[in-house]
Amino acid sequence: MKNSSSYTAVAYLFLAPALILMGIFTFWPVGYNTYLAFHDYAIADGTATWNNFEHFKYIYHEDLFHSALKNSLLYLLVVPCIQLAALVIAKLVNNKLPGMTFFRATYYIPVITAISVAGVAWAFVYKYDGMLNGFLTWVSHFIGYHSGFERVEIDWIGNPDIAIYSVMVFTFWKGLGYYMVLYLAGLQAIPTEVEEAAILDGANAWDRFWKITVPMVKPTILLCTLLSTIAAMKAFQEVIVLTKGQSDTYTALFYVYDQAFRNYNFGRAAAAGLVVTFFCMILAIIQFRFFGDKK
Amino acid sequence: MAMSKSVRNALGLSGHYAGLIAFAIFTTFPFLWALSSGLSSDASKMYLFPDGFWPHEASFMWFERVFQEMPFLTYLKNSTIMSFFTIIGVVAISVLAGYPLARMKFPGRGLIFVAIIATMMLPGEVGIVPNFITLKNFGDFANWIQESIGLGSSWNMREWIGLNSYFGAIIPNFAGAFGIFLMKQAFEQIPQDLIDAARVDGATEMQILWKVMVPVTAPSIAALAIFTLVNAWNDYLWPSIVMNSKEKLPLAVGVFNDLTGPFATSDNILMAAIVMTVVPVLVFFAFTQRYFISGMDGAVK
Question: I need a labelling partner for B49 at 20 to 30 A (CA). Which of A114, A224, B56, B171 fits?
């Protein structure tokens, strides 16, 4: 072995580009964001002045931020739906029947589509004279609920009562394939003998799913739930592309984005971002407690 | 038990495929609809079900109009440039950083690895405000250099590395935990004998990495490059914040702005534009999809 200090130097030299870039664009923002949260930032000359928790006091009393937080927590509803559906799909494609490669690829298409472009397509599906209402009109004619030229006209992303759920369906559609692939990896680690034995014992598909598949992919479920909880808490690109925050779809990070790049109040945005980070960490800890202990 | 076993199997199998097809319709219907609307020169049936799902009076006229109404080729060029350099950057940095983390023993290795993995848990979007300010400072710095060495303002060095630059739109994505982790996993699979043999021959660490490790881990590098390409191609948020001149926008941002902006004239043009943006990714995906599934597989384990 060559002398050890030059060996260490080589190792750090290899790591240097990664560490420098991560330092600037990943670690520094955490610290600087915290600093900004306690200051008034003037974008013109780049000066920051201490403001005695003013931003936190402001957002603590602001209705808009409250409803943003409420919507972000409501958004967590998408987590169990997407996890269950992804696991079921992974189970459906995890076999050697013909056409499985095709179906796997098909389910992955939304994941590899740009969120902005997919959002435009969905906005057309959702608008009050859009495809979803066209479909529902066809269904209601079919079952005889409507007649003649009557059309179903629900404003899926304009009505404040339902808009947030419509955005959630979009998130569900976009993320399904991603979690399916993760579950597929988990499922492929299960030996096929286990399931064959259960079939011989006469267990039906429902029991096999809940009593064999679910317990055996539990580590993957924990990972995926954690990822999708944080993703749901951070949801806001969906909001940008579908509703631009109209009709009660403000989410917590959309508030951050809006304060920063429409109001140019970087300090307040940073304070709200800090609150969101805090919530994300609490959710992560809860989940580790909840799932982690039983392993 | 009236049904014979083979009937029950057949029923089970059709149920299985019915489920698969139902989900497949759910994930693809917006694109199928966009495709048929983009191909229809008769727009009147676009929002009718089920008529909207096949073309009426098929023609490519809307696709031709896309080229006339938006700078599609400019966006395409920008997306290509930005994705290309992102791939180079991500692969180079991940390979360089993954090697010492996997195969070299040095003080601080554990700590650095934990720190890199921990960044996966951070809500990265919170970094957009500080990164925006950082890039603004980069631009100011470039401007200061330009003035202090006495170059004219036509050089506009502020837009080389600051806001509204290709550099600024892609540089925060270069060093990522995912890529470093993927390469570390790949390097750990290589037998120690191979490295020892190279060391005995007097190879430097750089030679081992470049001549031994990189060729053997080519499939993982390919997987990383493909993932990076798709992410870079689809990146919407950060370029939309950093870029403010239309001629530098990538597809994901430019097409979106034009589609939702005041110049959006006809719904069918929008649908044609959506199809044209999605198709390059789909074609690429069709050829490389095995890497997506196996690449994710490697990252999970």
Answer: A114
CATH architecture entry for A36-292 = Orthogonal Bundle (1.10)
Sort out which chain B residues have CB atoms less than 8 A from A239's CB and list them.
none
> B94, B274, B300: which to substitute to probe chain A, counting the most A Cβ within 10 Å?
B300
DSSP assignment of B68-128 equals HHS-HHHHHHHHHHHHHHHHHHHHHHHHHHHHHHHH---TTHHHHHHHHHHGGGS-GGGGH
Condensed to tens digits (0 to 9), the pLDDT of residues B67-117 reads 888 888 899 999 999 999 999 999 999 999 999 999 888 898 999 998 888
Structural domain boundaries in chain A:
36-292
B196 vs A212, B199, B201, B208, B232, CA distance in Å? 45, 5, 9, 10, 37
Q: Do A138 and B50 touch (CB under 8 A)?
A: yes
User: Does B66 fall in a domain?
Assistant: no
Q: How high is the pLDDT of residue A65? A: 86
Residue in the structure block whose two tokens are 């964001």: A33
Q: What is the pLDDT of residues A45-83, one digit of tens each?
A: 777 778 877 888 888 888 888 888 888 888 889 999 999
**Could you give the ipTM of this predicted complex?**
0.85
Q: How much is the pTM?
A: 0.85
Chain A hits for B102, Cβ within 8 Å: none
